[in-house]
Amino acid sequence: MSLERFLNQAVSSWMSEEGPESDIVLSSRIRLARNLDAYKFPTLFSHEEAKQVINELEGILETSSLRNFGHIELLKIDEMQPLQKRVLVEKHLISPQLAEDSPYGAVLLSENEEVSIMINEEDHIRIQCLFPGLQLKEALDAANEIDDWLERHLQYAFDEKYGYLTSCPTNVGTGLRASVMMHLPGLILTQQINRIIPAINQLGFVVRGIYGEGSEALGNIFQISNQITLGKSEEDMCRDLMGVVSQLISQERSAREALRKTSNIQLEDRVFRSLGVLTNSRIIETKEAAKCLSDVRLGIDMGYINYVSKNILNELMILTQPGFLQQYAGGPLRPHERDIRRAALIRERFIMESKNIGEE
User: Fold this and answer.
1) Which of 32, 177, 205, 299 is deepest in the core (most CB within 10 A)?
2) Does 277 count as an annotated binding residue?
3) Where on this chain is RDXXRA motif of the pArg binding pocket involved in allosteric regulation (motif) (predicted)?
4) Is 237 a known ligand-binding residue?
5) How many CB atoms within 10 Å of residue 239?
């Protein structure tokens, strides 16, 4: 396995497989923040200390294995080109912070890309587990297994009163960030999302865009995650988030049904217009592509379209991002060139889809 393998495969297994509630919930993620007791936090440590942290993780990988997660590869950030780092961000395998602000960082990636262990980001270690659909418990179980594996070899920075110690005080305690990525076009089209987001924030959760903090909700995709990490168990935090997500699923389904009853022909027209844009455009920008892909996915989920796979849309949401387009082009592209290539790629992918269906 190599870096190229992670770069060339557009869709990770957690995006290509369907999980519970997958018409609305795209993925579930658990992230655990950990630091090593023997080193300064990454905000203060030296280049030499950063290298030592990586060496410790590399040594564990050479002498021990995670049997349930297959082969794991260590990739160093300083050995990657900017475009390569951008692709890994677009695939949700590393954070923008690790790519942009952590030259002495690294990442451990499992072969199926469900497990990503970031090294020397804001904390020494950030364990991330991604599962398709609504599978927070399964993701938490996997993250805890990896955490136990690492703790058998490492001494974590831990306080009996405050729990796991982290660079940012908001992560102290469990160090847990649980998040669910949701497709919520119904709540957008019925204009309910603006009253729902403040209510979610008041409950101690945060709503962000598709790539986390500071990002836009491209394609009506939102991340819902916990804010509190201290004073509750990991299981309680996940259960609380599940309660909020279950309410959002119910409200999204109600919104879709209301649209079917009150604006069915208008919604169907919107879906097929977007399908027409995707299959015929010669130039298309990222935001327009994301909006049209969202409309088509909604059309599939509501039964308007039965000859396009959901998986093609997951794939195209990644393939049409700027980094991936340039990766496939073999080098940098100007914005206008990216828009032309994006449109061509989408057309070609839909042609492939129609051929696959015709052969069935």
Assistant:
1) 32
2) no
3) 338-343
4) no
5) 14
